[in-house]
């Protein structure tokens, strides 16, 4: 599924584990309760995606794009607070 563009999608409860999503784009996508486990997200764009929970230690997020508004989706497991 490399280079796939997802636009304005509701991708709730989707299992994206072990999926190659390199250079894919998640434009305004709701990823609530979706599973990212050993997912290849290298160079993917999640800058406008929301409600995701991605563990940077268990997924390839090298050169992946995020916005400061959705960084908490990468840090939830650490139980830290991000003030904007």
Report on the structure:
By secondary structure, the protein is largely without helices or strands. The protein has one domain (1-78): Pectate Lyase C-like (3 Solenoid), CATH 2.160.20.80. The protein contains one helix and two strands. A two-stranded parallel ribbon has the order 1-2. It is globular and about 35 Å long.
User: What is the overall silhouette?
Assistant: globular
> Average pLDDT, to the nearest integer?
95
* N-to-C span: 34 Å
User: Architecture, according to CATH?
Assistant: 3 Solenoid
Give the class-level CATH name: Mainly Beta
The structural domain count equals 1
CATH fold name = Pectate Lyase C-like
Task: Work out the helix count.
Answer: 1
CATH-wise, what's the superfamily? E3 ubiquitin-protein ligase SopA
H and E string: EEH
Outline of this structure?
The protein has 1 helix and 2 strands, in the order E-E-H. With 84 residues, it is mostly loops.
List keywords for this structure.
single chain; about 80 residues; little secondary structure; Pectate Lyase C-like; two-stranded parallel ribbon; 1 helix; about 5% helix; 5peptide_repeat
Ordered list of secondary-structure elements with their pairings:
Blueprint: E1 5-7, E2 25-27, H1 72-75
Parallel strand pairs: 1-2
């Amino acid at each position: 599924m490399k280079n796939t563009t997802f636009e304005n999608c509701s991708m709730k409860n989707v299992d994206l584990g072990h999926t190659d999503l390199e250079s894919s784009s998640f434009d305004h996508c709701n990823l609530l309760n979706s599973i990212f486990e050993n997912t290849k997200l290298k160079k993917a764009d999640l800058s406008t995606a929301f409600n995701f929970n991605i563990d940077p230690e268990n997924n390839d997020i090298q050169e992946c794009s995020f916005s400061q508004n959705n960084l908490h989706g990468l840090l939830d497991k650490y139980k830290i607070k991000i003030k904007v």
